[in-house]
Write a structure and sequence with these properties.
The chain is built from four helices and seven strands. By secondary structure, it is α+β, with helices and mostly antiparallel strands. Strand 5 and strand 6 form a beta hairpin. The strands form three sheets. A three-stranded antiparallel beta sheet has the order 3-7-4, with no helix packed on it. The chain starts with 8 loop residues before the first strand and ends with a helix.
């Protein structure tokens, strides 16, 4: 009989959300991540909010993330449901600055 791979959890997608789920479940379950190959170029607006630092610290990944030397972003401009832009600066954010990501490098690190 053929060897079969049994997993408890199948995670589809290895971006920030999928990788976080997999990393948190891996100590307790057999986890398999299925993903497409990495993108080959950086998209405009690839960023990580400051609140992500709490998750990275909780998972023991904070120091490793900082070693990647992603550039901080201190101001974001977004258009959500309105033609008027919304500006959000990090000076009022209790978590501090977010980061501009090299998304390919970041996703490879998460994997």
């Amino acid at each position: 009989m053929r060897d079969q791979l049994f997993v408890d959890v199948l995670v589809v997608g290895a971006g920030p959300a999928g990788s976080t789920v997999a990393l948190n479940l891996a100590p307790f379950h057999k986890v398999l991540i299925v993903t497409q190959s990495s993108a080959t170029s950086q998209a405009v607006g690839e960023s990580l909010p400051a609140a992500a630092s709490r998750l990275l610290k909780d998972m023991g990944l904070w120091s490793s993330f900082l070693e990647q030397d992603h550039q901080p972003h201190r101001l974001s401009k977004s258009l959500w449901g309105s033609a008027e832009p919304y500006f959000n600066d990090s000076i009022r954010n209790l978590d501090g600055d977010g980061w501009h990501l090299d998304r390919v490098r970041f996703d490879d690190w998460l994997l």
